[in-house]
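Researcher: Let's walk through a ligand-bound prediction step by step. First, I give you the protein sequence. Second, the SMILES string for zinc ion. Third, you return the three-dimensional complex as structure tokens. Ready?
Model: Ready.
Researcher: Here are steps one and two:
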Amino acid sequence: MHFKLHHAMLRVGYNVPTLISSTTTYSIPMNSGNLEPLSDEERAIYEWQLSVPGFGVVGQTKLKAATALVSRVGGVGGLVAYQLAAAGIGRLILAHAGNVKSSDLNRQLLMTYDWLGKPRIESIIRRLKELNPRVEIVGVPENINVDNASRLVSQSDVVIDCAPLFEERFELNRQSIVHRKPMVECAMYDLEAHLTTFIPGVTPCLACLLPEKPPTWTRQFPVFGAVAGSVACLAAMEVIKVISGLGTPLSGRLLRYDLRTMEFHRFGISRKSDCPICGHLEERK
Ligand SMILES: [Zn+2]
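Model: Step three, the predicted complex:
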């Protein structure tokens, strides 16, 4: 996300003062009995991560059965998709409009120089397939909007919000609540980044944190590819964790860090009972 979420949240009066730690685990519901076993080739390719304690063959099999929707596959979303493809996710639904521009190339690592002027989604699919031809990719040459969001979210197990426009973010949030899908929220501006994982009925949603678009937001923002990539890699781990049940996701917590100073902080965040998007959901544990 390309705005100062933390500052914006303070500006709208949201209370994020608490540094916390937690051991809460979470994973999306998945019927283990229907999972397709790993092939010998898959066991060979994922050998090094299969030895991660708490992940193993069961985690890898769940990842293979899962579908992730990435909203905008640019500086942040491109690296999320790349890491998920490398890790062996079964299916990616990728939404990104437009043609490759020169100014994409400092951070949008799935775009290449030879693809300038051609559709971004084609470059994205080509690069991901070069890395992992087994991953099923649904390429959508559109950004998230009110016409496609419900359909795309309903086909996913988890959604990842990497869009620069608030209209897209708010629509993705709305549909993730309607369809009860976890949403990994990535935000960055300059050398700062923010990350959290929204779980409907358990944690706040985006509208709880940010009821409306911050007035100071601008479409173009200062960014290094390495900052976008850092939050993308963390977000990809959040996706792997909520699919497999590995570790503790950032649910109910907001990670904020500043790569100018290398300071990392986590803040506790809570649901708003009067949130117009998620306030009606019954509290889940
Ligand atoms: Zn909410």
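Researcher: And what stands out?
Model: The first strand starts at residue 67 and ends at 71. Strands lie at 67-71, 91-95, 136-140, 158-161, 183-189, 192-198, 253-258, 263-268.
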